[in-house]
Design goal:
Layout lengths: L1 E2 L1 E2 L26 H25 L3 H8 L3 E4 L2 E4 L3 E8 L14 E12 L2 E6 L1 H4 L2 E8 L6 E9 L4 E5 L23 E6 L8 E15 L4 E8 L11 E4 L2 E9 L7 E5 H13 L7 E2 L2 E5 L3 H6 L9 E6 L14 E5 L2 E2 L5 E3 L6 E3 L1 H5 L6 E2 L1 E4 L5
Antiparallel strand pairs: 1-24, 2-17, 3-4, 5-6, 5-8, 6-7, 7-10, 8-9, 9-10, 11-12, 11-14, 12-13, 13-16, 14-15, 15-16, 18-19, 19-20, 20-21, 20-25, 22-23
């Protein structure tokens, strides 16, 4: 029995809120052109933020009527309201690793998100890379002209998920949160909803599930369960919901730019793990890992050398992290044949569903939480 430890996580630095322009700047006089240019830039940014703040307070009857109006579409033969769809506006400032005493220039970007039912309480989900290194975040619900100030409540860079919250109660008025569904099957029809590049209004694209497996998460530099679809996922779609049978089947988060019609979504098991981690721990802890490297046992001569019988299958342990708790349990050249109730095949996969889908055995560890235990069945010197 082994305890799991955390996967390596991408480190990020979150900057605090930017300082507002105070009245003393207006009295500064300088003939230096660069200083005058800086003052003009600061003044323009302050003016834009003041306009945004006044827009928050300008809630007329048109906004209230828009909240109560019936805005819905037919997605996969089901009527879905668009009220929970969110456009995220983020101002970010990344750390400058060459000049660590200062930040890089701030930039504005947009993404997508949605309001979901978080155990009876509505919340907002989007991608971590949409709000990473944020200094200011605002959101806009579909059908409302106003933006609302949001803050990052929890963020998981390894799984590329962030949860936002809005303190203004007007934002939540009349909304019907989306429900989380299940993992779809191959060839199931799905719809990607979001705000991709090319326009400002909401966009809906359709496709089917093409593949289910562990794949690289670019933002977090991890390998987690993901679903490949052939629906268009473009910049700006990040964080938007993928709908299947009226429920959320995943979160759109990346595509393969060197190919056509290959997009990836974060499936519901990863989303639920992120939400459960937030409840179990005072801060987000991430996905655990066993801390070993393994080699497939498909070669019959390799199997014979390590005394595997015809019915035995598994993976050969070739490296053990010195910081892993497996260091005191496993040895090099051990063969892992079973993880909990899952039989490990010679190619390193385990059964994922009753439909015959198989994924890498690492998914078994990713489904657990830190400090939980896992049961391993191994062969050592040909003996169980």
């Amino acid at each position: 029995m082994l305890s799991l430890h955390r996967l390596p996580k991408k480190t990020s630095i979150s900057s605090g809120k930017s300082n507002a322009l105070t009245s003393r700047y207006s009295s500064v006089k300088s003939s230096h052109p660069r200083w005058n240019s800086t003052l003009s830039q600061i003044a323009e940014e302050t003016r834009m933020k003041n306009e945004l703040q006044s827009d928050f307070l300008n809630r007329d009857a048109e906004s209230i009527n828009a909240t109560e109006a019936d805005r819905s579409v037919i997605i996969n033969d089901r009527q879905i309201t668009l009220d929970p769809m969110i456009k995220v506006f983020a101002t970010t400032a990344s750390p400058n690793h060459f000049l660590p005493w200062q930040m890089k220039s701030s930039r504005d970007s947009t993404g997508s998100g949605f309001i979901f039912n978080n155990n009876g309480t509505p919340g907002i989900l989007t991608n971590a890379h949409v709000v990473a290194n944020q200094t200011f975040v605002s959101v806009r619900r579909h059908g409302l002209p106003n933006r609302f100030i949001a803050k990052v409540e929890s963020i998981g860079h390894d799984c590329d998920i962030a949860m936002l919250t809005v303190e203004d109660p007007f934002f939540w008025k009349g909304v019907q949160p989306l429900e989380l569904g299940d993992v779809p099957s191959l060839q199931d029809e799905v719809s990607v909803v979001g705000y991709p590049t090319g326009g400002d209004n909401i966009s809906i694209t359709n496709g089917v599930v093409s593949r289910i497996e562990l794949s690289p998460y670019v933002h977090g530099a991890t390998n987690l369960l993901s679903i490949q679809i052939d629906a268009a996922i473009n910049p700006g779609n990040s964080g938007g919901p993928v709908i299947q049978d009226g429920k959320v089947a995943g979160i759109a988060f990346q595509n393969l730019p060197t190919a056509e019609n290959i997009g990836f979504i974060i499936p519901v098991p990863i989303i639920k793990h992120f939400l459960e981690d937030k409840i179990r721990n005072p801060r987000y802890m991430g996905f655990p890992a066993l801390g070993v490297q393994c080699q497939p046992m498909e070669n019959p001569f390799l199997r014979k050398f390590f005394k595997l019988k015809a019915e035995d299958t598994g993976l050969l342990v070739t490296w053990i992290s010195p910081l892993s708790k497996a260091k005191n349990v496993l040895q090099l050249d051990d063969v892992i044949t079973k993880v909990d109730q899952y039989q490990v095949a010679n190619d390193g996969t385990v059964r994922f569903s009753d439909r015959g889908d198989r994924v890498a055995f690492d998914h078994v560890f990713h489904s657990k939480f830190l400090d939980q235990s896992v049961n391993l069945k191994i062969l050592r010197n040909g003996e169980k």
